[in-house]
Design a protein that fits this description.
Number of strands: 4
Helix content: 40-55%
Shape: elongated
Number of helices: 2
Low-confidence stretches: 59-65
Strand content: 15-25%
Length: about 140
């Protein structure tokens, strides 16, 4: 694995975590949206990630332990959560049904905050890994100069 491969692996993780943060933000912003383009309440979106080959590179050690493919990550899918909407009794709400219940999105704000914090921490770790790879590359150029 060369320096550029490690940077590509880190960059793939940063892009994936940014997508997770965006979805958590979108879910939180729509936690009380009772009308969507489809006619019902907003449906929570989930992000699925998958491992992908980034680049084949030379071995890092003499025993060829690391020879082969480096793995990055990408967004495999953004899907709607299939859990039913949350029903609350509010007969005065404009979207209340005949029994006075309103269908609210299946979004749990606490769960979304946990997802956002987790994605944020993973993003910070990716930035640190990327900074380290860049620093190593810069130091390597100083050795030859």
């Amino acid at each position: 694995m060369d320096f550029f491969t490690s940077m590509e692996v880190s960059a793939s993780g940063l892009a994936a975590e940014r997508t997770r943060m965006n979805m958590a933000s979108s879910n939180m912003a729509n936690a009380h949206t009772t009308r969507s383009a489809d006619g019902g309440p907003y449906a929570r979106k989930t992000v699925s990630l998958e491992s992908v080959d980034v680049m084949r590179g030379p071995a890092l050690s003499f025993d060829n332990v690391f020879e082969g493919t480096s793995k990055g990550v990408r967004v495999a899918a953004i899907e709607e959560d299939q859990n039913p909407p949350r029903l609350e009794y509010d007969p005065g709400h404009p979207d209340a049904d005949i029994n006075g219940y309103v269908a609210f999105p299946n979004v749990n704000v606490v769960e979304e905050m946990v997802d956002m914090i987790t994605a944020s921490r993973a993003y910070e770790a990716g930035v640190t890994a990327l900074d380290t790879a860049v620093s190593m590359a810069e130091r390597a150029t100083e050795i030859g100069g």
